[in-house]
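Quick illustration, no need to memorize.
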Amino acid sequence: MNLAPQVETAEISDVGLDAIAGGQAGAAAGAGAAAGLYVETSAAGVTTGVGGGVGLAVSPQGLAADLHLNAAVAS
């Protein structure tokens, strides 16, 4: 006698999976960019920094790229 718990499985379509997982199926393309500068003060001192980012996504199930640059100086 098998006392292991049983798990029911089901088939799910690509569209259903993308709705749950947030994936990209079918024809999709995207691009984005961001940049920033910040200054932060606290009891411990001052922190300054720069940040940036670039993104690219093309599908079906193809190319994805991302680039970020972050730098901070604390004093």
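The chain has a mean pLDDT of 74.
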